[in-house]
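Support request from a user on the community tier.

User writes: "When I paste my structure tokens into the form, the page sometimes reloads and wipes my input. The last time it worked, I copied everything first. Here is what I submitted, just in case something in the input itself triggers the reload:"
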């Protein structure tokens, strides 16, 4: 069994594979296998892999299972085996020795189940990347934010977060996880399809007492937004629906009702904001997301019962007790180290 399996999930990403896969192969260690799992692409991805990357191992799925289902199909059933899985987006540029700090940290801290590198923008290597930056947290009402990115404010990297710290979630753009932790958690929730499934997975793992870290000695560069760009109505729909579902699954009993009542108000306030901006697609997406959540909420009752029964951390400290909306919009705090004092 390999020490590490670097697993890239691909869907019609031939251009990204052509550009970024060479360095993944070049800069990954001898004890790492590089895999591309293909979600039934209709472009020339498989031809490209066969012709240009003979050392890369491939797995082709029979249809597009999304981010969550695609990785589950590859990692849960023994198709890919390793001590550590690295989930890597196809639009990530890796650097020399990018794997070593992650592996060494995980080897030396058996309580850490998940870690991520520092993620900077491929377009500007001096600023953090929106999707993951230096590791993620949640506020009281379920809004995700990162060291280095709060809502649309992305910070410049001045070394201010160059220290390892506990997180609530690591980004699916580049995430290392113990294979045992992934399998024990049952992998991603495939019903999410895409967006926020990594937050849900990490929250479930963190509540069991295992740690999630950012290891900034490892640095990668992410393009971001390659599948669904920011502002796309389908992305808005998935983010709102999945975020509400994640809260329903993971919130403690004593908080669930109050948080959901506040979110009802905040979500429709966000819809009104879209309407005032003449963003009709976003406006409708939020309404569709709320309706979809109501329709399928009770499908997750069993998951919720299991999660609450297995919970060890009460509360999870990386789910902050404040509202990031209040600190960002009312107090004008736009950087992580201002908000999280």
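"...and here is what came back when it finally went through:"
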């Amino acid at each position: 069994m390999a020490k590490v399996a670097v697993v890239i999930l691909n869907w019609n990403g031939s251009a990204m594979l052509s550009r970024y896969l060479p360095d993944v192969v070049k800069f990954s260690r001898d004890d790492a296998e590089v895999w591309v799992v293909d979600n039934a692409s209709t472009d020339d991805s498989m031809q490209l892999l066969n012709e240009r990357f003979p050392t890369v191992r491939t797995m082709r799925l029979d249809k597009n299972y999304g981010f969550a289902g695609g990785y589950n199909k590859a990692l849960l059933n023994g198709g890919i085996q390793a001590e550590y899985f690295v989930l890597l987006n196809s639009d990530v540029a890796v650097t020399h020795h990018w794997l070593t700090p992650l592996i060494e940290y995980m080897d030396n801290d058996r309580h850490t189940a998940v870690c991520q590198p520092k993620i900077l923008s491929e377009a500007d290597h001096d600023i953090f990347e929106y999707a993951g930056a230096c590791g993620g947290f949640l506020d009281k009402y379920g809004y995700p934010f990162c060291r280095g990115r709060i809502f649309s404010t992305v910070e410049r990297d001045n070394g201010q977060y160059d220290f390892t710290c506990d997180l609530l979630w690591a980004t699916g753009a580049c995430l290392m996880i113990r294979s045992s932790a992934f399998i024990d958690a049952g992998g991603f929730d495939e019903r999410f399809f895409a967006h926020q499934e990594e937050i849900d997975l990490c929250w479930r793992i963190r509540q069991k007492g295992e740690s999630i870290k950012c290891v900034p000695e490892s640095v990668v560069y992410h393009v971001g937004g390659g599948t669904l760009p920011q502002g796309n109505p389908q992305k808005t729909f998935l983010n709102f629906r999945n975020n509400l579902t994640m809260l329903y699954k993971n919130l403690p009993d004593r908080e669930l009702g109050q948080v959901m009542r506040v979110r009802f108000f905040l979500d429709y306030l966000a819809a009104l904001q879209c309407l005032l901006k003449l963003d009709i697609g976003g406006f409708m997406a939020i309404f569709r997301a709320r309706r979809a959540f109501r329709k399928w909420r009770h499908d997750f009752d069993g998951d919720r019962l299991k999660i609450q029964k297995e919970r060890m951390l009460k509360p999870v400290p990386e789910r902050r007790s404040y509202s990031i909306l209040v600190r960002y919009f009312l107090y004008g705090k736009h950087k992580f180290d201002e908000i999280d004092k």
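Agent notes: The reload is a front-end session timeout and is unrelated to the input. Residues 253-276 form the longest helix (24 residues). The mean pLDDT is 95. Escalated to web team.
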